[in-house]
Amino acid sequence: MKTTPEHDKRIAEMTFASVYPHYIAKVEGKGRTREELHRVIEWLTGFDSDKLQELIDEKVTFKTFFGTARLNPNASLITGVICGYRIEEIETPLTRQVRYLDKLVDELAKGRKMEKILRT
Question: Domain 5-113 is in which class?
Answer without folding.
Answer: mainly alpha
